[in-house]
Structure formats: structure tokens, C-alpha cells
Amino acid sequence: MNAGQILSKAQTMGVRLSLNGDVVKMKGPASAIATIKPEIAAHKSAIVAHLQAAAGVPADSIGALIDPNGGVYLPWGPYLSADDVQRMRTELLAMIEQLAALEGWPHKIFDDVMERAVRGPLSDLLPNLSHFHDRITGLKAERDAREVLNRRTWDCD
Question: How many domains does the chain have?
Fold first, then answer.
């Protein structure tokens, strides 16, 4: 019996299978779960692969967890909703614009950095936010220090 047949049999018996990482979770009547469990255990790797493919888990995200709302996430990273990602990307773009203005970037460099920020992978988002925040904070501190020095009056008498 292959994974598809086992899943079909489980569904017929009223057992719903889902994944939590590589763990196959079963919900349904206890007697049906007890009946189908040995078959699932015997073909676990094929069933996990089948469920991951059905859930749309990309090959590079094996081990990812499936959110009840349908999203895939990795347990070792922070959970980010779509709204969180949108807010953080908007914040990042604003920081890039501010840094470009402070440093006087040429348009070509500005456009390149903005494109990379917009099209970059999600894994770059938090490090980029930290990087640009630190650069802006450093530039503002330098500017403030220069202003203090410029306001200072020197008495050479």
C-alpha cells in the first residue's frame, strides 16, 4: 500500500492526518486511529512527504511547521504575520531613504539598494533593519557631535 492509499483509507475511516514538523498528528475516532496507526507508522516517511507536498511545503523548508491558517513557518525563527512583514518592509524602505539622504547616495546606488530590499528574501529582513538602524543612529550621533562642536565658542585671549 502506498502513502496515497493509506491517506485515502484514513479519510474513509474518519481519521484526519496533519503534520507538526515531522510528526504525523491523527484526529478522529479512537478505534479508527488504532486501526490505521500501524500502517501509518510503517510508511511514515512516505506519508510525511505526501502531506508536505499536499500542504505546499517547499523542498528547502522540510521540517517547517504548518500554521492552522495555512502558512509554513520554521520553528527556530520568529513568527511573522503578513502584516508584520509589510510593516517591517515599509520601515526598512523608509530607513534606506533616510540613510541615502543623509549620505547623499547617487540615484543608481539608491535604486539598487531599494530593489534588493524589496526583492530580498524574508531571512534578510531583520538583519537589514538592524544594519540600517545602526548606520542611521551612528550618522545622527556624528551630526549631533559636530553641531555641539560648532556651537562651542573658543576664547583665545
Answer: 2
